[in-house]
Amino acid sequence: MTDSHVGNSEMQQSRPQVLIDGSAFESPGQLGIWRLFFEVISRSARQVDYTLLLDKKPCRPLPSGIKVVRYRRGPEVVSRRHILHRSRSLLSCRYWSRRFPHHLWHPTFYTLDPRGKFSAANARLTTVYDMIAEEFYWMGDFALQQEMKQRCLNSTDHVISISQSTRTSLLKHYPNLAGRVEVIMLAGQHFRPPTASDGAELKSPEAPYCLFVGGRRFYKNFAFLIDCLANPHWPMDLQLAVVGAPFDDAEMAYIKAAEVQSRVIHKGVLDDQHLNQEYCQAECFVFPSLGEGFGLPILEAQAAGTVPVLADTPVFHEVAREGAVFFQPCDQQSCIDAVQFARNLKRQSMFSEKAKENLSRYSWDATTSQVIDFYRRSWDASLSAESK
């Protein structure tokens, strides 16, 4: 038996080896992407041999039990600088190929395999989180993101989609991926309702508020929520609490023009403990987004015992089922009525049961099990192909 056959035989019995680009751990945004990788890696570090490549100091906690390697990430967009970088990185590709000859490649966000063409025998995996770039934008940052995604998908072997809705949209834009896409959904039990031992969490806020969490770019429809707040039919006792990055000048100007600045509370970027507290204390959680890949805050709100008030879109129905109140997108009165209804619904056990029933469909342990199985199948197939 040759040495190569011995090596392959040993590897068939070993843990899958996965090389992960850690850009989502370095970004102040991409919270949902970080959450997915953090929860899965934390639960599977004993079954999978992970190596995380970091270019910058991480902004988010790293999972324990993984190897971290310094990696100089090149420019991602196709440009003269990109071409020069790739032409100069031939030695770098050979280096990474020798250092990680068999690892599966799984970037957190559409980064190309640093081993380049030298890893042809190794499986490349890609997670697709949404199709916002393709369906809402054709220029600017999202056009660059679409370009990154196209290059990554063109070189991938297997794709994970985080919802059926995203899978449907993905195959509409990339029909050549048919047969290579598997749906693995997120979960929300990193948050929970308050208990008697959570003294601070059980305190009532100074004034009732509804909660908005996350980014506020165009498709998030945040300006629509400000318009609702300015509508005379909006409950005058109900404020709007916003969790996320600081307001920019344009947002502040819009809020002031709507004359609602006294009723908008900016909470900043919060850690899990304080964000969970905001969910628990809120009268409801409002998510007016026109498009998402999943909508993780929906499960976080349900887990905290707060009613999600959601734009009526297919992916939100898929994720929330009957554990939410829906309104017609861009219809102010429909949104206001839904908020009013949700305030009453939060105090009814009927909603709590529906939310619990929906949450039971999701589990980070189940997600992790699916990802491990995905890795194992890809690992075995890659080694089988290499041995031929």
Please provide a written account of the structure.
The protein is of the alpha/beta class. It has 2 domains: 3-187 and 364-387, Rossmann fold (3-Layer(aba) Sandwich), CATH 3.40.50; 199-359, Glycogen Phosphorylase B (Rossmann fold). Helices cover 43% and strands 14% of the residues. The protein has 16 helices and 13 strands. The strands form 3 sheets. Strands 10-9-8-11-12-13 form a 6-stranded parallel β-sheet, sandwiched between helices. Strands 3-2-1-4 form a 4-stranded parallel β-sheet. Helix 1 (3-12) runs antiparallel to helix 16 and helix 9 (222-230) packs across helix 14. It is elongated, with a radius of gyration of 23 Å. The protein starts with a helix and ends with a helix.
Main attributes?
disordered N terminus, alpha/beta, 388 residues, Rossmann fold
Helix and strand pattern: HEHHEEHHEEHHEHEEHEHEHEHEHEHHH
CATH topology (level 3) name of the largest domain: Rossmann fold
Let me know the number of strands. 13
Number of helices: 16
**CATH architecture type of the largest domain:** 3-Layer(aba) Sandwich
The CATH C-level name of the largest domain is: Alpha Beta
